[in-house]
Amino acid sequence: MKDFLKILLVVVASLVAGAYLHKCQSPPGDIPGREDCVMDTVKVYDTISYIEPAPVSTTPIGFINVTIPAPAIPSANLDSLPDIRADTAELASADVDATAPDSLTLQLPITQNVYEGEDYKAYVSGMYPSLDSLFVYPRREIVTIKKPPKRWHIGPTVGFGYTPHGFEPFIGVSLTFSIIEL
Question: What's the pTM value of the predicted model, to 2 decimals?
Answer without folding.
Answer: 0.40
